[in-house]
Amino acid sequence: MSESTSQKRLPRFTIWQFLNLCMGAVGLQFAWSMQIQLTGRVTEPLGATPLILGLVWLAGPITGIIVQPIVGAVSDNIWTKFGRRRPFLLVGAILGSLALIGMPYSPTLLFAACMLWIIDICVNVSQGPHRALIPDNIPQEQHAIANSFISFGFGLGAVIAFGFPFFLKEILNYQVGIKEQFAVGAFALTAAMLWTVFTTPENNRPDPSEEVKKDSPFDSIKMFLLSCLISGVILTIAITATGFPGQFDLSDKQFVLDGLAWFVLVLSFPMLGMALRSFYTHEIGKICAMHYFTWLGIMCLFIYFNNYVVHNIYLVPDLSTATQAVKDSFEPTVLQATNLSGLAFAMFNLTCVLISIPLGYLSSKFGKKTVHAFALACMGAAFLGSAFYATTPKAVVIFIAIAGVGWASTLTIPFALLMDNMKKGTEGSSLGKFNLFVAGPQILSSIAVGYLINRSPMEIETGSTHHWEYSLIVGGSTLLLAAVIALTLKKDRLQEQTTSEQVEEKTPATV
Asked: pTM for the whole thing?
């Protein structure tokens, strides 16, 4: 039985079914939003510098590198009475919610980092299988629309998660605390994922008679261990060649942090290379490159934007080494700045909500690559505009809202492009490996951009801080590069098939 025949047997989804599916994305986005908005607010008072903040954020990419490919491959190869994807959705959401509740109570920076790792592991357990529900249960001609509904769900969840503290303060004059925000995120993650689990049945059970070569769950572990070995060898050669062993001191905190940063940065590149080799078309390689530079830019926003607003817009000095009295004196300003950055992210995602579904239809009319390139260019230009021209809170919100055009497209079109090219029977593992091109740039952004900011102090009226706007300059530049790569993609495979079928229908049969 051919792939196209199998796809035609799948019933078309209705709008209500798409909405049920995207509720899981609402919950996942609540978890990500708490991390994006509040990680710095939890870790900085515990002593996190810009470089340490970047290292703490390695939780996401490292767990994404290991967990999503494993979970994707495992879920490809099993079938339970609850389906093959839904058990992972449920377990990841419940355990992730417990970690969300615990994170703001962290007594030390190490404990906070551990909580963040647990949250990321659990969210990655749910996220890959949630996206894999699309090729499992929805016909190919609806993949772009299905992914646009997922984008809508992510955007809606973020609007609510980022926006409710600001609006509660402005409307009810109630300031929601950090611990309360994490608790709300935990409840939303579990409730929304339960909705999807119990309203989206998995009816497309794999046919055991179909012989499909599937990826092993151990492939990603082998890739990770081999990458660690390569990274260790490269760093050893580099240290020996530069005569650095004389300064080798594990008791030096900065030496250990720098060594860890370089080790993780180097190991990400062999992982990406092996993932590319495991795919089977050059077109997927270009899609992965486009996605890599896109997420390098996006993570510059996610990791550093709150600190950019707090320190460069509201002029709060660096508090990582401040006394408790100084921290307390700036707490009202920090909360005000955090509310503003939350509003900016809410507007960023409101744009995503408003245009994500239309993007699916525009892609069908004008082509996925054209629409995606335009959206990425809008996002890159908005980042650069915020870095160079935003001097007031209002201007920051406007620029970041414009950037939401690219965010909506990033959550929709690259996955539709990949699904047009992926091999049947490897949906979960292919999406898991594709996540490496989200995790890899997170590592580069966490380490390289964090290092750049850490080495770029500046004086402000209230003391000293860092050039956090450098993150937006780097991010805007890589997004424009991703837009250029998008334009090099060939025609969508589904469009080529449709055109070919139309030509065959119009051509008279010959004997």
From this structure: 0.67
